[in-house]
# Entry
Amino acid sequence: MKSTHFHFLILMCFCFCIQLSNAQNTNKELPKNVSTSVGVYLTSVAKTTISVGPIKIDSTRTKGDVITFFANENCAYIPFREENVKQIYAGIRA
# Structure
């Protein structure tokens, strides 16, 4: 359990650092259907292990070919483990 909290804290710090570094960069707007699709995908991944409400993407940041998604609080309940993080990255890339 503590390991999951630690990984989540690292992920949140990483997202926060990316947000700060992108604050002065031009943000390319992603189509709304992309953010919606990512939210639906994350909700389906979460529901394989826990009961959670819909995950919605609040905002995005882009820098080069890196896209950072910022999700609502429901995303915090996903138990981030090595195997499902790989699955999430692969699913979002697809």
